[in-house]
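User: My collaborator sent over this chain with a note saying "see what the structure looks like." That's all I know about it. Can you take a look?
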Amino acid sequence: MNNIRFEEVVALFKEQDDFLILCHTNPDEDTLGSAFALYLALEKLGKRAALLCDMPISHRSSAYVEQDAFVPFGEFDMALYEGYTVVSVDVASGNMLGLLKKHFENKTDLKIDHHAIGEDFAKYNFTDAEAGACGMILYRIITALGVMNERIASLLYMAISADTGGFRYSNTTAETHRIAAALLEAGADGAAVNEALFETKSKSDFAALQLGLSKMRYLCDGLVSLISISNADKEAVGIDDRDLGELPSIARQPDGVLLGLVLKQTDGDGRRFKVSTRSREGFDAAALCAIFGGGGHVRAAGATIFADSIAEAEKKLLDAVYPMIGDLT
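Assistant: Without extra context I'll predict from the sequence alone. Here is the result:
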């Protein structure tokens, strides 16, 4: 539940001087674009800001988001940021902080989010579940701060376009288009952003796609598709977690599939399995992920499952899925 008004959020950014901005684990373009846009906006205000995520940025985000702007997680020293105002962006729950959770779940000053299902883990929590992307909220904040420019506009356009699937998903509203139009008027290069998001793939992206298709299985009489990928699978074809971002959407695409699931063993920790979900109308993906402490949207959500093997993680996931699918049939 929100315990801070929009005007107070804007005032906080005006009044404080030092900020540490957190992205969620397995970062997508909404958390990255929103966070980096806020980082640049605060710099324009003469503030000191730092960015932190527990994983590197995705390949397709790198055209607009600079990895060098992020504090390397392995070198992060909490003592250096003592007294900073900690702000999480597009993080629905403490679990979505990933490896940052142990440092910040109870030390986050402000949560800015747009997911309908989540938890209030910060001192101040501001969530607008009507916003199709966190970038829409950051557009309002940065506009109120009076520091919009072409670069920030492109980052926010990237965030919104990515989270709405190029303005194709059901979270796209008239307000989404109004904000997108305002960003284009502010100098966002919409064509270039969408080309980077949807029309450009690296060779590792294609390797990931080929791997994902080879691993896809159909369950529940074709209502569910599941792609499970281990660290050994990734190593065999020379890819990492950043290359797998498009697989959840691919898993949902087959005709008749109600729920697409991607389960992947995370780089560097054999017991952590990230589940990404995409669903069609009739299945609440966020409710499924909430079972594992995750969150997200009705049609797109994520969570982390802890298990000793990918087979055990699959069993935990499907034990949660089967009753939900059964209630619909």
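A starting point for your reply to your collaborator: The chain has a mean pLDDT of 93.
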